[in-house]
Amino acid sequence: MGSIYYQIAKSNIRKNYRFFIPRILTEMGLLGCFFIMFTLTIDKELENTTGGAYLPTIMIMGTVVLFILSFILMVYSNSFLMKQRKPEFGLYHCLGMEKRHVGKVLFHESFMSSVISIVSGSVFGIIAYKISTLLVCKLIGTEPISGFYYIKPASVIPPILVFVVIDLLTFIFNRISIAMMKPVDLISSGRKGEREPKVKWPLLVLGVLCIGAGYYIALTVKNPVAALELFFLAVLLVIFGTYFLFVAGSIFVLKVLKKNEKFYYTAKHMPSVSGLLYRMKQNAVGLASIAILATCILVMISTTLSLYTGMYSTLDDAFQAHCKVKLACYDGDGKQIFLNYDDISDMAYKAADETGFKIKKMECQEFLEVTTIKDGDRFDFVQSDKDDLGISAASILTIVDVDTYNKLTGKDLKLNDNELVYCPITAVKEFPEKFVIQGEEYNKVSEVDTFPVTSSYVSICDVYGIVVTKDAMTKIYDQQKKVYGSYASDYERFAAITFSDRSKAIKDGFEFDEVLHREMNDYFEKNDIEAYYYSDSIWEANKELLGLFGTLLFLGLVLGIIFMFATALIIYYKQISEGYEDRERFVIMEKIGMSSSEVKRTIRTQILLVFFLPLIVAAIHTLFASPILLKLLRLLLMTNVSHYLICALVVFVVFAVIYALIYSGTSKTYYNIVK
Fold it and tell me: Counting Cβ atoms within 10 Å, is residue 580 exposed (0-12), middle (13-18) or buried (19+)?
């Protein structure tokens, strides 16, 4: 008997290839991508390469996201497949098969399709992983690793087990579903349509409120830390709001169109509007899912692409000087002492000569950065533990005294003790004529566009650069020292080195760093100074950012491809189900007098409306998300707004073209079924 069930199942898969092939390809693709993500998480060879340290942390997050998405897509694919097969199973039952026999046929179908999917998916993953490692190594700037060292039980077995469990769960669900249904229900299940829905006003109101709240958060978030805290709340609100508005809002709009007699009672609009309204409950959930997936694609790829392609611009913004050597250290009693700048300068030039570098400029930068709570034009020092204020509420004052400012800029600025010059480093461009710092009033003399020192807080807070007199700077230092105690800021002092060739500094700067490190350690030992060498360099930042941004871009591309595949899958299944449900309806339309061209025009109108609405919604979501995304990008030192907008526009255009191709390809299936 076992061979009979096998033969029936084999015949069913062959006859219903239109349903089984997408399901098999879905599992194959998901398993292959899951293998790539999971193996990148445990690949010690890649982790130990230059820039590979970020791979495990980022890829484990991608693996979790991919697992959730895989489960959802497999359940969705299975539910569609079962909806199409239930009438056939009901017919088997009517012809004399018991439910346990139908269950055995189902088991053989599930087993064969799972084996094909898992074997092909594993082979695909093993081959694709090699290509992926080459891409990852290219993105993070390291040499590729040769061989197929990653083919081992620890990387192959876990992904297979994950999908075996998913397949087993879907089979159990299908078996229970068939066991609980009557034969007549199985036969008629494929013909069930949706009643014309009523407007669900609570969902409509909730949808508007959720979307409005999500957009409000995105548009009004103040700084990067607050953006990080509120981002996922805004995402959840927009997701729920999208589903609510597609379910309730679409019905509301269609009913409004139906009440418009001039619009509705035409051969062009009446069939499309009535058809959409009749089954909009089913359409709405699928369309909302497509809109959310499309938004995810646009957001992930545009942000990661802008980070990676704008990395050198980010480095230039963060490193006005290519290397900053710390000249402030602490003795055994915790007292701050300053190293001799001239001695450090001599060592730097010696290290440059030894390593073939040419120093274009070297200067001593001394400044003070203090944390304040801003209220209007007031900047106060407040202990956060007493007032429950975190870094998200903070504003940073980066302060340079007027003598240092003149030395660094070559200007001849003169100030009184109650005067200052303002530079909006990352804060508001225009500021009132008065600054009130801890109760002391300072008059703004002028504003400047550039500041001679780089703040270390530009990625997390609003930073206000100000120039004051030496006495005023000392007063501000003493005021914050009195409030913050041991947590107060100390003066920062650096030897800022700029080389003639930036590209050489990025490529070979570690050689210069090594020699200078050795020279300074000898200096500490000779002068009996208890200190350690600290530098902040463009080459070290380049290595870190290349590893981080390259890994993020790879993750964004992989997840973007998976989301694109999921979008195509949903559209394909929707076209098939819509085609079978619409076929009889359009035959009736032709019988009652509509011409073939009018029927085709009705079909075209309905499909365009259904499948391009999510693309428009995704574009709107991405546009409103841009302010909060730009705040989040600041956490990764990306401050170039125009570069992000260009990347987002390019990604949208490419996605729209691919989306149109998916629509064009799947619509042919719809037309063939309807005809």
Answer: middle
